[in-house]
Amino acid sequence: MQLLHEEAADTVTVTNPPLQIGMMIGSTANAGGGVAIALHSLTCALQQRQGISVDVFSIASADVIDGGNWAGARLHHHGVRGPSSFAYAPMLSRSLRSSGIDLLHLHGLWMYCSVATRRWGARSGKPCVISPHGMLDPWALANSGWKKRIARRLYEDANLRQAACLHALCEPERQAIRDCGLNGPICVIPNGVDLNPEVPAEPADWRRELPPDARVLLYLGRLHPKKRALELIQGWHLAQTTDPDAAAWHLVIAGPGPAHYVEQLQRQIVQLGLGERVRLIGPQYDGAKAAAFAAADAFVLPSLSEGMPYAVLEAWAAGLPALITPQCNLPEGFAAGAALQIEPSPEAIAAGLRSLFALPSESRRAIGRRGRELVAARFTWANVAAEFEAVYRWMLGRGPRPSSIDGF
């Protein structure tokens, strides 16, 4: 806090000095998934707070979330040389040096952004905060583990250790960070969500192709083996062949993914004879995504590993009951009665589906209402932005230690 004393009066005015925050991410494109979507929403929420301005540093992309509308934040995109998976951007460090930011907040690991973040922190002497977004969880570390072990030795461990603060989305992620031998401060702050998304006036095109009385179970997210979309299809087949209540339901799978994996999902649908009940509708962004949630009756994410899945929060904001695994790291949903617990195997998914199918309509809607109430109480972007502002000011010596910082 800074105290400003006015000579002409006996009063003391307390103000917060302005903050210029830098956000770093590999991609600001829709295809960047939940991390990019969360960063966009956090940036917009911070921009609405008095005395805060945000610069976003990323690699070049022709597909920027919300058409580049980031509530006035300045976007700095940089060309890439070499493999896109590492995204070496030779002009990124120069851009950071000339920005005048007070601190830098890195979102995600394993890319050149980590190298640039560490260099900026060492040269400027200013603090960095790093959000792994689940990328230090055991499953994530084991996936392509040999590449990540090399990256940790070359640059990532040094980057994580120089951070003034690390950010965990939930308690399990905080513990995963500690298990990596990182002993510095960690703030635990969840993702947020827009509680009142604008719903398109027209229904989703794919919904018109279903019977008017059809009930829709929606999967919306990146198509990746860890998300268990293939096992979801297999579990759906098991439930369809054993449960007469399943006849009223259709499974809609939305999201981007590698062509070979999408083809594998489509082959499985055909092989199991599910073409009439299961459909892949591809990526759904902005208005199309809102229309998908509006057209659904329930939501499912049978993931093996998550930081905190943004799509589940969006489903709750839309008033949908959710079928999720404990690995989604949203135990609040189970405690509030806003979610049905499933496990990521076909048999366990089928059991969860049977439980959903057996619920009366009013019971489903009640579960969805509890999800919306949970979002309103805990997961709004306004609350999340306020928590991050408190962390930023503490890191800069401009405020007290926030309650979100764990013991260290």
Describe the 3D structure.
The chain has a seven-stranded parallel sheet, sandwiched between helices. A six-stranded parallel sheet has the order 12-11-10-13-14-15, with helices on both faces. The chain has a two-stranded antiparallel ribbon with strand order 1-2. Helix 3 runs parallel beside helix 5 and helix 11 packs across helix 14. The longest helix has 18 residues. The chain folds into two domains: 205 residues, Glycogen Phosphorylase B (Rossmann fold), CATH 3.40.50.2000; 174 residues, Glycogen Phosphorylase B (Rossmann fold), CATH 3.40.50. It is globular, with a radius of gyration of 22 Å. The protein is α/β, with parallel strands linked by helices and 408 residues long. The N terminus is likely disordered.
Give me the secondary-structure topology:
Elements: E1 2-5, E2 12-15, E3 19-25, H1 33-47, E4 52-59, E5 74-78, H2 92-97, E6 103-107, H3 112-124, E7 128-131, H4 138-142, H5 145-162, E8 165-168, H6 171-179, E9 186-188, H7 205-208, E10 215-220, H8 229-242, E11 249-254, H9 259-271, E12 278-282, H10 286-295, E13 298-301, H11 310-317, E14 322-324, H12 331-335, E15 339-341, H13 346-358, H14 361-378, H15 381-395
Parallel strand pairs: 3-4, 3-6, 4-5, 6-7, 7-8, 8-9, 10-11, 10-13, 11-12, 13-14, 14-15
Antiparallel strand pairs: 1-2
Helix pairs in contact: 1-15, 3-5, 8-9, 8-13, 11-14
